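Quick entry, no commentary yet.
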Amino acid sequence: MGHIRNYSIGDVVARFKTMQGYNVLHPMGWDAFGMPAENAAIQHGTQPAEWTRRNIANMKAQQKRLGTSYDWQREVTTCNPDYYRWTEWMFLLMYKRGLAYKKKAPVNWCPSCQTVLANEQVIDGECWRCGTPVAKKDLEQWFFKITDYAERLLEDLSLLGGWPERVRVMQENWIGKSVGATVTFPLPGHKEGITVFTTRQDTLYGVTFMVLAPEHPLVMELVKGTEREEAVRAFVEKCRQQSEIARTAQDTEKEGLDLGVYCINPLNGEQVPVWVANYVLLEYGTGAVMGVPAHDQRDFEFAKKYGFPIRVVIQPEGEELDPARMTAAYAEPGVLVNSGPFNGLPNLEAQQKIGAYLEEKGWGRRTVTYRLRDWLVSRQRYWGAPIPIIYCPQCGTVPVPEEDLPVLLPENVKFDPGVISPLAHVPEFVNTTCPKCGRPARRETDTMDTFICSSWYYYRYADPKNAAAPFGKDAVEAWLPVDQYIGGIEHAVLHLLYSRFFTKVLYDAGLVSNVEPFTNLLTQGMVIKDGAKMSKSKGNVVSPDDIFAKYGADTARLFILFAAPPDKDLDWSDQGVEGAWRFLGRVWRLVMSNKEVFGQKGDGGGELARSDRDLRRKVHATLKKVTEDV
């Protein structure tokens, strides 16, 4: 019923705008690739294509029974070749513009689902779908360089006045702009030092230890051949089994191991012990954190546990902190102490001066970084759009020529367990010829993240039958950007962010003239039953077919629209459905018992009786209120 709520709200807007005289594009499509469909098909012993198309037919029948005003002539299905041909084209666009690249990266791996998981899909170290403990694997992966657009994605949030503030804040936090400095701490006996990023260069004189992420490439290099190597390797593996969310949680115990080496603080020349710690992540910053326990709470807890010195370098006005009596880190403004030539400076002023000093000495530079990381887009699954890349022993990585698209996904495959995509076991898919040299070559066997399919579909709606391009510019100019988008809050930092990224890439390529995809956004609330969101996995789903059969589609629509404001959660109530059904029955009986009156025409003139004037006034007031509310 959560889907029914979304569809019903959208249908109200579409019908309302049509009645106001607007040209309304109200399309429907199917985001049909992905892990849920593949897992369900495997579980039921059928092919994902067959399973998916059967479910599409069922859902389409439900929607038609619901009476939604969709333009079915514009229907798109992402798992059909006439659509994913252009998804592959979008990948090639990214590749040609230097925005698609491949590298080895540690990923969350579910052994049961046999696929990578996003960080958001790992809950307490387990797969969000099946509950299996998640492991880390190093795999060759394709990425999109969304980080190249970080600043524009952040700045253009100001253009989205029709979006809920909550969503804009979520995207701002997800992009996570930080202004600070990168500083390199030399490692005696090593060619390269340890580079850190910090927003608190005013605390550099307070560094008493250095911690590296378990995945940092220096960790095993620094202990190689030493008595510490085995213990460090075991610690690294233990950390890799934990989710990033668990490792960085406030209540997670901070753990670490001494690597037995020292780096040098460039500002004061002190030796700083280097450790590996579970609370440092390779994906954030540089994967190394300078420990300033007097002025960072995590560092304070780590120092207390392992006995590192605590050196105060920022004193609050009119107060003197004593490290021996501190019970928590001091992270507020103050004046620098124990900081060499910068003593006495307000710490905010010192940040700028120390940044300039680092650049002058060649020890570092003022830097802007983002929490946002490049988008990992390859999946070790079958049911997804093929990645249009060929590997040739002679020519290397070669993109599939546009005229050879689509790379067709075979629809009969074996689902053997293992890291390699099932496509790797389909010789007629894997084996091909290099488009450059004509020699034998092999296709990429990973498939694309399904968020790629859904990051551009709204453009295809404007021109769904175009066989020569993903869309025509004239058609897009007529309809885009989308005036009203309706979707759940769970898409705030995934689909909605990716769609904004795609739109900016298309804009830069000269294919569209809008810089944002969606002008107005409504995040509808969830449908709650028995205290939890309706979900098949929780066994609390109400079938739309059952409601239609017992009460009719009008009752379903009325209840779903009446029971709660669109942006609030809706508590499912069987009694509420029954009440909506009874109300519609009363309306029906009222109309039918007075159908002769409704069929009469007024004389169009003369003075209205008082009761008629009151009724006319009430009708107009109601129309005004409904218009304003919608």
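second:
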Amino acid sequence: MGPDQSNRGQNIQIPKIPQKVISFSKFLAVLFVLFISGNIVVNIVTDYIWNNHLGFGSVFATMFVTQISLWVAGFLLFFISTFVLFINVRNVFIKDYPNERLPEIVLNRKWFMTLNALVAFLIGLFGATIVQGIGWERVLGYIHQVQFGVRDPYFSKDLSFFIYTLPLWNFLIGVFLVIFGANIFVKLVAYSIHEFIKYSRRAQRHFIVSIVLFGVFLAAKFYLAPYERALTSKVNLFQRSVVEGISFTDKYVNIPFDYIMVGVTLLATILLVLATIRRKPSYVKIIFPLYIGTYIIGVAASLVVQSFVVSPNELAKEEPFLANDIEMTRKAYALDKVEVKDRQVNDSLSREMLARNRETIDNIRINDTRPLNEVYNQLQTFRPYYNFQDVDIDRYEIDGKYQQVFISARELTQENLPSRAQTWVNKHLRYTHGYGVAISNVNEITSEGQPKYIVKDLPPSGSIEVKRPQIYFGENDYRSVIVNTKIDEFDFPDQEESATHRFEEDSGIPLTGLNRFLFAVDEKSYRYIISRQIDKNSRLLQTRNIFDRVKRIAPFLEYEPDAYLVVRDDGTLVWMIDAYTKTDRYPHSDAAEYRFNYIRNPIKVTVDAYTGEVKFYLIEPDEPLAKTYANMFPDLFT
């Protein structure tokens, strides 16, 4: 090769990027980061303002602070463990390995620390995501847990252990197994270079620390495994028992083998430590057959017992365990509190019997809610932009008689406004609410076969007085609206001209000062800032679908998907929603086809149809899950 050819590669120069391009790229990167982080901050702040305005600021703050704390804890745990790991590995190589054979990135402390910090930062972000994934609810539940006062039939532990304590312990053990498992892998790769671990005592000590810690946590995982068996019917990788929870195979095979695996894990850890210290690779040949062989024997024993001992005589073998299953399932669904009474059947029907049960007979339904909903939408909407979502059944005292009625709310559907009316002003400032209700008898119809109305028409009139018929919050998918602007709101269509309305309460978020800018960003609408129709008296009504509203406040509860409207004694309208507490960690309880095996209905939620005020009522204050939530959030329940 000639000199020209040998130097040809050295003459190639990479074009230098102009400084202006670099500066502009940095500016765009900073702008992008500010935009993303700014939107996140605005969403958090507006969420807090919204919740605080409804009186649930402390609920939001508790959830948010717990989530942030978990994220920070996860980040620091993974960042510090990664950063310290690589520093220790480097120190071992610097002290015990020929430095002339080490790469420059290891020898140059500044470069190494920079790269180490970057890697640890990325691992920290990964760890933060994992730790936050356990959920704030699990941590707060563990801290504020309430005893059930019921013990499981096998371990004799209070049920709160299975619902709150056990899942948190298992998760933390899992996190540390990931950390120390990764440490072992990194050290094994690093110290295997030129069999370095055989000759460096520092490398051996460093490696042993991770082995011991990993072994202890893995043993702890096996120690807790029997408790998890109380939550499943699975007896091995391939079979399930008819019993939910501890079964015959669990008691006589699986649980003993779980405890055997604790001992085997600790023994394998000791052997691995000795193999490292004494430089005895032969110990390693013992560890894996011992560990894996014991595990396989356990699975095989479970298969044999379940297939050849239990299955041929399942009822006899599982009878005491089925008794536990039935007892705990009854308790989980409160079936044990059902009172069973024997009644004598009387085939005779007399006038006296009818007279005694007159109220019941007078309330026998002859109409059905499904066709009635179509009738309401045909006869009581009056305009295409109104609709009745569904029909509910309630009871009212009318003219001194307690009677059952059909009731439905006349809600606004902005999508059905004429195309020429689909303007920003109309959708956000003018057409803001539905109007009134339709109420009819369950047991009467007119001569034409139509419902016999108790309340009907616009404005609503009838035997039940509706003094505040405006419906700002309901079951429809509502967008946010602004009230008390310079534009009067459309109220209802009158014969001559449309009636108007001005919002009369101080609910809603005041669009003054910084609020106006924050919610303009949150709603992604610059009109909140530039509109001249919005002034200092204007208020934002946000999250107006009642289900979205209650879930935004308390996302940890399960809500009945069908709310029902109530006309209160003062003539105002309020939505009622049933809220449930449930879990899938009630031991020995059968979940059937559901995703839970314990459920209660201890909470009622009301949403004012006009103001949007939300109240949570704890109607069963002794229900353990609800009591735990009450401990978490002292300001949640009224």
